[in-house]
């Protein structure tokens, strides 16, 4: 017995304690989380634990295991939550393999919904991982939040290996010495990206042979997203951004996953949390809709006005305090970064004619041509050193997106990666098109990606010293040695970045670009 609960058997064990299947006096089954006794010896633990449990009680129970009881003053502190009779995501993938199609998308939406509700209650989960996602009938439920902060604040009394959280799903900022003081909900968004990658591939995006190697990859390497479907690869990659300011919020994740478009600017200023009503309404509608017939009996209680909120843009007054530097939907430029959602003229502006040029149409930068063009009116900023370039593209079977880098100010010299429906290549541009030298090409590798279906696909170039790696939807398709080729003359080591399009014979081709993101390491 523990308190008034009979412990029937152990369900699992983690860094914070053990979880037991319990029976309450009325006979109902519950899950009892027994906290390690060493935490109870900390003078401030009880107060922190009580505060976190009270916050956890505010989280709607439709997407989490409901908090039923807690005793932080017991000699062995414990927490009692709803027993969810279903396997964890970790168990499911381990026994049945990676998820596909609607099952995978439901996990992505369900966990994003839970995070929206958790964050709106002022709670940061801190230990989101596949083992903490339970697959209850109707929708996933996220468990084990509400005590993490209290335990983590005590962790300076514990051994290093007992740090709260699971290394493979920790955001880079969690690995810093002052992580406890700087941790924000963005750390859970990073973990969401890693969880969805695991669900899609059966592995963590930063998997390595040792804890030190995993930490090194989290801090310095791009995620390995091979196997994540194109419809999810872009948003997963943004969730796994090294800089927490570049990750979407849980609300934005939910909006994009449900609507299929990037979220409007909704990130509140640091330390502020308006929109709790919007978050709860959005989460409730999504989960009700996912629950099939049960939703029909409850939607009437929600009201059509709340349904409309999910699809509407927030008013300008609601976002007036938003910080542009932290909002992924706002264009920004610095010495180390360029980001432009490409939804309206900003860092890139229209150039050329409507029939052949760069313009904005339907909330995206659209480029049309019958041969080859470059979007000339882009940022003049010159980058040197290693860099990563990402852009989301919709393209037709005959079109190619050209990503130019280390480009001279007049646009006549530099490199470009050509990403087409049937091949990818890296070329050196020496004197406009008269001396375009193809350095390397990889034919036929894109056929399985079905670019002719119009995407969207996340296109990328990683430049490291004298090599350039081309990626589509997180999968590396070509690595090119920039020092090779037939052209003579000095190769460029710095320059601008911009985009272009080329096509074959016949009618003009069209591509649409969104979310251009350039960072220098």
Question: How would you describe this structure in keywords?
Answer:
521 residues, alpha+beta, Phosphorylase Kinase, domain 1, Transferase(Phosphotransferase), domain 1, Jelly Rolls, 3 domains, 10-stranded antiparallel β-sheet, 7-stranded antiparallel β-sheet, 13 helices, 24 strands, 26% helix, Prot_kinase_dom, Protein kinase domain-containing protein
If you had to describe this structure to a student in words, what would you say it looks like?
InterPro entries: Kinase-like_dom_sf, Prot_kinase_dom, Protein_kinase_ATP_BS, Ser/Thr_kinase_AS. Pfam families: Pkinase. This is Protein kinase domain-containing protein. Keywords: ATP-binding, Kinase, Nucleotide-binding, Transferase. The chain is an alpha+beta fold. It folds into three domains: 77 residues, Phosphorylase Kinase, domain 1, CATH 3.30.200.20; 237 residues, Transferase(Phosphotransferase), domain 1; 189 residues, Exo-inulinase, domain 1 (Jelly Rolls, Sandwich), CATH 2.60.120.560. It contains 13 helices and 24 strands. The strands form four sheets. Strands 8, 9, 10, 11, 12, 15, 20, 21, 22 and 24 form a ten-stranded antiparallel sheet that branches. Helix 4 packs antiparallel against helix 7, helix 7 packs antiparallel against helix 9 and helix 11 crosses helix 13. It is elongated, with a radius of gyration of 25 Å. 45% of the residues are buried. About 16% of the residues have low confidence.
């Amino acid at each position: 017995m523990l308190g008034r609960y009979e412990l029937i058997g152990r369900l699992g064990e983690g860094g914070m304690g053990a979880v037991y299947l319990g029976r309450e006096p009325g006979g109902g089954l519950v899950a009892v989380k027994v906290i390690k006794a060493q935490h109870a010896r900390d003078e401030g633990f009880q107060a922190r634990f009580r505060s976190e449990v009270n916050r956890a009680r505010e989280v709607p129970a439709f997407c989490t295991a409901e908090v039923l009881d807690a005793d932080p003053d017991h000699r062995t502190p414990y927490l009692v939550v709803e027993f969810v009779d279903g396997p964890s995501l970790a168990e499911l993938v381990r026994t049945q393999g990676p998820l596909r199609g609607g099952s995978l998308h439901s996990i992505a939406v369900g966990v994003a919904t839970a995070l929206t509700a958790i964050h709106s209650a002022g709670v940061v989960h801190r230990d989101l991982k596949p083992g903490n996602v339970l697959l209850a009938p109707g929708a996933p439920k996220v468990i084990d939040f509400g005590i993490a902060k209290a335990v983590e604040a005590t962790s300076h009394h514990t051994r290093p290996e007992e740090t709260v959280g699971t290394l493979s799903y920790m955001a880079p900022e969690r690995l810093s010495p002052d992580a406890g003081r700087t941790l924000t909900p963005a750390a859970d968004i990073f973990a969401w990206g890693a969880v969805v990658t695991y669900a899609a591939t059966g592995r963590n995006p930063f998997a390595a042979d040792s804890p030190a190697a995993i930490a090194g990859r989290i801090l310095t390497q791009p995620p390995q997203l091979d196997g994540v479907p194109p419809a999810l690869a872009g948003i997963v990659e943004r969730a796994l951004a090294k800089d927490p300011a570049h990750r979407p919020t849980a609300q934005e994740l939910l909006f994009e996953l449900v609507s299929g478009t990037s979220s409007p600017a909704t990130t509140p200023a640091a330390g502020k949390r308006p929109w709790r009503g919007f978050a709860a309404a959005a989460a409730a509608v999504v989960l009700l809709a996912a629950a099939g017939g049960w939703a029909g009996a409850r939607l009437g209680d929600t009201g059509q006005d709340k349904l409309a909120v999910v699809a509407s843009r927030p008013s300008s007054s609601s976002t007036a305090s938003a910080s542009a530097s932290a909002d992924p939907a706002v264009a920004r430029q610095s010495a180390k970064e360029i980001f432009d959602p490409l939804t309206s003229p900003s860092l890139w502006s229209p150039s050329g004619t409507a029939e052949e040029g760069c313009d904005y149409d339907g909330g995206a930068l659209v480029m049309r041509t019958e041969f080859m063009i470059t979007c000339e009116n882009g940022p003049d900023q010159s980058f040197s050193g290693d860099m990563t370039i990402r852009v989301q593209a919709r393209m037709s079977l005959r079109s190619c997106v050209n990503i130019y880098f280390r480009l001279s100010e007049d646009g006549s010299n530099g490199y470009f990666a050509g990403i087409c429906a049937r091949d990818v290549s890296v070329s050196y541009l020496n004197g406009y098109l008269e001396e375009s030298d193809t350095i390397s090409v990889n034919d036929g590798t894109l056929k399985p990606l079905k670019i002719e279906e119009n995407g969207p696909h996340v296109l990328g170039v990683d430049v490291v010293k004298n090599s350039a790696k081309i990626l589509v939807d997180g999968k590396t398709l070509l690595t090119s040695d920039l020092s090779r080729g037939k052209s003579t003359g000095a190769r460029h080591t710095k320059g601008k970045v911009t985009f272009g399009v080329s096509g074959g014979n016949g009618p003009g081709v069209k591509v649409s670009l969104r979310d251009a993101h350039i960072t220098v390491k």
